[in-house]
Amino acid sequence: MTPDAIPDLLAELDALVGLAPVKAGVERLVAIHQLNIARVTAGKPIIAHDLDLMFTGDPGTGEDQVAALIGRLYVALGLLPTGQVVEVQRGDLVGATVEETQAHVRAAVTAANGGVLFVDDAEQLIPLVPEDQGIVALAAIAAAVDVRPVPFACIVSAPTDAIDAIAVHYPAFVYAHAAALEFPRYTADELVAIFERGAGALQIAVPKPVEAALLEHFVAVHDRGDFRSARYVPALLEEMYARLATRTMADGKADGNEYRRFAVADVPEPASAIAADTGIRIGFSGDLGGR
User: What pLDDT score was predicted for residue 231?
Assistant: First the structure.
């Protein structure tokens, strides 16, 4: 991949739903690296910019997609040789003992060499009790960032308070914290757009009345209308697909006029918000209410 690919990669970033401040931040990041490359080539001094980043905000707001694009952009800029993204969470890093946890982190770093180590939901590594192995994992990641014989970038993603706490306790992340990208919650309109892309991939139309019903659903899905995680959208799409199937096959025949488009009746009534370890999840009323 060469610098000629950068405009296409930025266009791919721009095509993502929402995330205006993130898009602006990535474009700024690319511009800084481009200028530094040009100035080094011309023998001029530069203000060096770290490859590591921190993502702040709620889970389910497109962090993994942006991390993948950043890996490819770093390759196009000539900053990394391969750009693969190795995504890890607590379950991938934490073992039963200090030695096992450190081994898991070393394996993840080795897999990310030449590319990007993406530590998602890093708040789950912050220890609640002193013996929690999450603190060992964070310390091992910070040590790997400090000393890396093979280049790689580290991106740590967590809610803002957790990112601030990690940066305070681990100086290796100070520069990444200064360049943190804040991922805003999706608006209800943006969640509709994300749903429509998923439906489009299934070649199922979303007529205007269904759009309106979906908008009402996303607003009502939380008691204040401020639930904004895209992780909910695939579950909603799956539920509506099941309702479409039930409606279409009621007479035992797959009528193309029915299965090619959603109907308002396919949009479920939202149930109450349910707290979960990874953030707010929403159940559907009816037979899948506990999902």
Answer: 77
